[in-house]
Amino acid sequence: MTDRKVRVRFAPSPTGPLHIGGVRTALYNYLFAKQHGGDLIFRIEDTDSTRFVPGAEEYIIESFKWLGIPFDEGVGFGGNYGPYRQSERKDIYRKYVQVLLDGGKAYYAFDTPEELNKKREEVENFQYDASTRGMMRNSLTMPKEEVERRIAEGEQYVVRFKIEPGRDIVVDDLIRGEVKINSSILDDKVLYKSADQLPTYHLANIVDDHLMEVTHVIRGEEWLPSAPLHVLLYEAFGWADTMPRFAHLPLLLKPVGNGKLSKRDGDKLGFPVFPLEWHDPKSGQISSGYREKGYLPEAVVNFLALLGWNPGNDQELMTLDEMVKLFDLSKCSKNGAKFDYVKAAWFNHQYLIQRPDTDWCPAFDKVLKENGIEATTEQEAEVVRMMKLKVIEYTDGLGNKKKRNISFPSDLWPLTKFFFVAPTEFDKEGDKFIRKNWKENTADELQQMMTVLEGIDDWSVEGQKAIIDPWTEETGIKPWNAWRVALVGTGQGPDMYELSAFLGKEEVLKRMRFAIEADPSLTSPRGGVESSNNEKQTNKVSASPLGETGEGSVCTR
RNA sequence: GGCGCUUUCGUCUAGCGGCUAGGACACAUGCCUCUCACGCAUGGAACACGGGUUCGAUUCCCGUAGGCGCUACCA
Fewer CB under 10 Å: which end of chain A, C or N? Predict the structure, then answer.
């Protein structure tokens, strides 16, 4: 058993988009397989015909493609153990169901779902098992001829696994150690349904894992309770000696409150629970995806890997290849992990800032477009292009090799919009920087500064400096912070000379004029407290944009 | 209800009988500075509870409590 080639599988059912928890399960399977030079199989478990969702299979495949987790074989990847779609393996399952039937390990049952429901209502904690099967309508209680007659007449039936009570079954779990449960609490699970001629999960799973020579089953903790059943099935088939090793992963829990992570939590708290955006074919509902939200696949993979596993040291940032080397099932934690989407964003930040500037441009284009910055002429396009490069340089810290606090490309806009759009309002009440730096005489000082600026011909950083620096010394006016308010609208942005040189003389003067005219107090309580205007309503002024500098317009120079 | 798994800072976690219980995210403060950010420094913050075992328990065992899962002709 130990000398077999490692083979693991990820086997989702195509009932909808791939949950992020499923992604982690697949990732761990991948890491384990690669570390041991083994194969990762992609199998589709579509044995529940009623829950099939069109497009789900393609979605799952595309998700892993984006995430960069490759499969070695399976649906869409080829391989010698196919078909890999369970709905295409009906004949195989029927054959093995018969083996169990012939060996007396399973039996036919004719009880209808309605009858069973009724029974469950009548008898508290009713369970179809050794204690009750003698009272039900099945091949153990009927004469052989009747069973054959019913089947021949086309009556619907199921095949149930005959579980012998009173036996302790031990599952040796790679993460949890030995888990022992008594067979008496297990019910006679349905293995096969005549209605759609398909097996249930349990039978199909065991048969496939055996036939596909799977050596390790790494799956979510929700399967732990049925693991003993699976052990029993391997025994019933006589496959106990090649039974895979089991590892049951802890679940992903919702960030706040109790319970496991669900789609709802994502919608409510504003983070995706699916790798890709998903358009539900039935309801038409759209669920957000990590890709569309601006996450990098490496970041998602890295973050997910650490949710329930760690390399045993303090290292947090690592590539897939590094993880392959470091991964260890015995270092997986046993308890569920709350999904911390704030930290997910931090991981994205880490990977985002490593990307070269050229990678930023397409993302930036999208952000600009979303915010109405679109060039309509050749000339404008050239201007936008230049601005973009400048802004990217700025986000890089203007040569300081420092990176801005950007977790997603969309964060670029609030951080850099002032490059493209003049401020149209000043939130004095809510902005400490404005309150601190815009005083009663500020407008007057800026007015003075403007007259000096108007006389400058060389608008380069050096050119401005040569005039303004002496002027500040002479007058004692320190204009920078107020100047910043006028040009940016708040306490943000690069060095003022840099910014001013970039915006150009015309635009700078225009923005200053706008702020000065909006002034008396830059519009709020502080200037005239006694003139008890309604503070809450006057603190936020959006004076009409002066002529050309309308909101959203590209500033051309 | 039954069965199983689980329990270290707010969160993810390190720890595998003796530690000032470590790191990361988040938060706070300081430094830097014409602002923000970055960076650096500092700080607050945890062994669920009760019994054992032991010279000694965060660590091992048993309970209790909390959390999670399963309990379908779903996976």
Answer: N
